[in-house]
Design goal:
Helix content: 40-55%
Number of strands: 7
Largest sheet: 7 strands, mixed
Radius of gyration: 16 Å
CATH architecture: 3-Layer(aba) Sandwich
Bound molecules: S-adenosylmethionine
Length: 201
């Protein structure tokens, strides 16, 4: 209940977030959606961590989550997006079994989102207004993915661990971009990188 207030979401949304957590627990032994060690703290480590990504998005349009894996943040975004529908959500994932899980979650939780079972670098541009990717690649590589899939005026939201500053320095060798780093509420060493105006050096 305290988390419900902290999250400021409807009871229905809260219950869907909980139901999604249960689905992850059920499927995890078979397809390893999240590390076993993080299952005990699934709510904070994965669900709230994804909620904060959603909360940083502005505007509306197409939201693309790259390398969605077990649905973080893509499925959480789809759940939160239901309250006031701003985005058409697409999840891109190359692993067929994870795509089966993502489609099951979408069906069982009655969400609106589509899943593309393809490699990020092989499909045509998805023209995202908002692009997210969590635990997928270093920032230099993510910016290459953004060049392909993000609209020129779009925003990328990349949650990053403690290496975010080093990754930023490396990425500056190849890319110019506008950066706002927002401290993570779930990990004091982590940040969510909010990136715009990406161009090659
Ligand atoms: C470490 S997992 C992270 C999953 C999820 N975003 C999370 O934070 O829990 C990375 C995921 O990206 C997928 N992936 C890696 N490279 C990819 C590519 N080139 N195209 C599509 N998916 C890819 C993997 O199959 C895997 O599910």
């Amino acid at each position: 209940m305290s988390e419900l207030r902290k999250l400021d979401v409807s009871r229905e949304t809260f219950e869907k977030l909980e139901a999604f957590g249960e689905l992850v627990r059920k499927w995890n032994p078979r397809i390893n959606l999240v590390s076993k060690s993080s299952l005990d703290d699934l709510w904070t480590r994965h669900i709230l961590d994804s909620v904060q990504v959603f909360n940083l998005a502005e505007g509306s349009g197409v939201w693309v989550d790259l390398g969605s894996g077990g649905g973080f943040p893509g499925i959480v975004v789809s759940i939160l997006n239901q309250e006031e529908r701003h985005f058409d959500v697409t999840l891109v994932e190359s692993d067929q079994r994870k795509c089966a899980f993502l489609r099951t979650a979408i069906r069982e939780l009655a969400l609106e989102a589509s899943v593309k079972n393809e490699r990020i670098e092989e499909g045509k541009s998805l023209n995202a207004d908002v692009l997210s990717a969590r635990a997928l690649a270093d920032l230099t590589k993510l910016l290459g993915f953004a060049e392909l899939h993000l609209k020129p005026e779009g925003t990328a939201l990349f949650p990053k661990g403690q290496s975010w500053q080093r990754e930023g320095e490396e990425a500056r060798l190849s890319w110019m971009y506008g950066l706002e780093s927002v401290p993570s509420q779930t990990n004091p060493e982590a940040a969510i990188l909010k990136i715009k105006d990406i161009a090659r050096v």
